[in-house]
Each structure stands twice: as structure tokens, then as C-alpha cells.
Amino acid sequence: MYSQPLADAIAEAEGLVAAAPFIESEADLLEGLQYLAGCIAACTHLAFDYDRDHPFMQSGTGPFTKMGLDNPDTLYFGTRVQPGHEYVVTGVRGTTTDLSFQMLGGEYTDDNVPVSQAAFDDRELAIAADGSFEWRITPNSPSQLLVREVYNDWSARRGFISIARTDTAGTAPPPLSRELVEKRYAVAARQLVQRVKTWLQFPQWFYNNLPVNTMVAPRLTPGGLATQYSSVGHFDLAPEQAMVITVPVSDAPYMGFQLGSLWYISLDYINHQTSLNGTQAQADPDGKIRIVVSELNPGVTNWCEALGHRKGYLQFRWQRLSREMTEADGPTVDVVDIDKVAAALPYHDSNKISEQHWRDRIALRQKQIADRMVG
């Protein structure tokens, strides 16, 4: 039975999810099972909708195939490239804030963060007046090419990107064989178990050893992009508590904040406000952005909804930077009772939002995600 390895892997991955040490409720488990379904979909897509010698850019992470604390402001694309072959990446630049490229020397696993072989953004490409560009590369080792298109404004226009291997362009792959189908089931199986193991382990390295309800000073993202800084933390809030996060308005072209669950994935950012970027966040007259993270609604524009998560992850990202960031650029954190939020916000009167205006914000999120949706 060709699919048996995948069936066995699904059972193993479900066991890993069910045994996750942080599960405290039925809701936690159900979220994990939903996450697992997205992992299955992503791994079968990556294994079957793929040909080694005829590459194309695949989306392995999205609203329904989440992993790795996926950024709600980012479209992710990637493919594998082989040494000794020339590849040509072509596209048309959209109006999004950042378009970045990274070559990784291997895969993320539960005991390895792959080496970043190269990382740059589109400022290093020659982009024509019509937005078109071309980049050629011949890798010297098996690598992953990752492309991130980042929105600081969800109303921006998506770009287009494609890849071809110059020695196989214009040819077709051979017909399916039993051996190939069998191999693809085995690859999907292996990737599924590794994917679940990896992202259960990753926060242990970079988040869980930090003091709870704090955030670190901005730092270059470990293993990440050359022009990206991040500030991370994890929260543990009672239902009647709120976290007030204050951060200066940045001169970075992109700034984004998000919440993540203990599955190390974004919370529902389509139907709820669980993230804010430089366009969505309300800034106060003193040049500060004040975000309130809580389960209960504080009635302010910059509320990030915990959605029943007592514990979870916090992350800021700044991208397309042209300078180093310091502690002064980063966030400060205060935990208060929910009835003390108004007192903790020096501009509370202008931070308040009506129920109808809140619904309008959510409706806009839903439309803008639908407009950019890639499946």
C-alpha cells in the first residue's frame, strides 16, 4: 500500500500533538489537531506538487497551513535547488513593503537551525521601470530558496515571482512511475513528522527560557534575514489581566506585532485582530504605539485578542532596516488588571473604539486577506 508510510506518519504526528506538554484544555488539543491538518496538507503539497528538475515557487505556509510562528503580514514561497545547475528567478515587483530572498543550507529540524547562506532584499536587484526583475544563481550545495513578500499595508498589490532551471526550461518531466509515487508518499511522511517535531522544539531554544511577560531588546533574527530585527517573548495572563506593550513608532519601513499559540503558529488573524502592523496600529501623539493583549475586550483600537489563550508567544519584527536597532527602539511591557487598562493608557480617550468601528476593522481584515489569498 503506497500510502501506508503517510498513514503511519499521520498517526505518529497525531500522537506527538496529543502528547504536547503544554496542553491544558480541550481547546488546546483541538487547536493542535487543526494545526496538524494544515501540516498534512502542506507536506503532501510539497512532496507531490513538485519536480526536482522542473522547480516552481511553492507556498508551504499560509493561513491554513501554518508553521514557525508564521507572520500574518507575509506571503511565503520556496523551492529546493540543486548544486551545479543555473536557476533564473524572475518576477514583477508589487507595491508591498519588502521582498526578500534567502538561501538556506538545509532544513529546519528539531536539532538544527540551517545555515543562512545568503540573505538580501530587492534593493540589491536591478528592477526595471515596469517592476520586472531577474536574478540568476548557481548553488554549490543542495539548498532551499525562500522568498518572503511582506505587507506593511494589507491593501498593497501582490507581486509575481517564478523560477526555472535553465537546462530544463521548455522540457517536461517524465511520466509518473511506481517508484516516484512511492518515494513521494515516503517524503511526505518524513516531512510531516519532522515538521511537527521541529516546531514543538523551536520555541524551547528562543522563547521559553526568557522571563515570562517580558520582551527582549530588538536583535537580529536568529538564522533570519539580514535586514530584520525582532523582539520576542512569551505571556502568561489570567483572564482578568491585560498586557500593555509600548513601542516607539519606528523609522523601519515595516513593523509588525503578532500573537502566537504554544503550537508556535499565528492565532486567527483573519477574523480577529491578533496582529498589528505599522499601518493598522494606532499611534499616540507622543510617538508611541500602545498595544493591549488580553482575553477581555478593553474597548481600544490596538487590542490584540488572546482568543482563549492564557499562554502564548509575542513577536515584533522590523524589516528593510538601514541601521542597527537598540533597546530604545524596542518594547516595554506592563501587566495590569483589565479594569486598570484605561489608567495605563495616557491617551485612552483617543484610543477608544466603538463596537461598529471594531466590526469595520475586522471586515477590512477579512477582505484584504481574501484579496491576497493564495490558497
Structure in a nutshell:
With 375 residues, the protein is α+β, with helices and mostly antiparallel strands.
SSE blueprint and pairings:
Blueprint: H1 4-18, H2 26-48, E1 74-81, E2 87-92, E3 98-105, E4 115-121, E5 132-137, E6 143-150, E7 160-165, H3 178-206, E8 219-220, E9 229-236, E10 241-248, E11 254-260, E12 275-277, E13 288-294, E14 303-305, E15 311-319, E16 332-337, H4 341-344, H5 348-351, H6 355-372
Parallel strand pairs: 13-14
Antiparallel strand pairs: 1-6, 2-5, 2-7, 3-4, 3-6, 8-9, 9-15, 10-13, 10-16, 11-12, 11-15
Explain what you see.
This protein has helices at 4-18, 26-48, 178-206, 341-344, 348-351, 355-372, and strands at residues 74-81, 87-92, 98-105, 115-121, 132-137, 143-150, 160-165, 219-220, 229-236, 241-248, 254-260, 275-277, 288-294, 303-305, 311-319, 332-337. By secondary structure, the chain is of the alpha+beta class. The strands form four sheets. A five-stranded antiparallel sheet has the order 8-9-15-11-12, with no helix packed on it. Strands 1-6-3-4 form a four-stranded antiparallel sheet, with no helix packed on it. Helix 1 packs parallel to helix 3. The radius of gyration is 21 Å and the shape is globular.
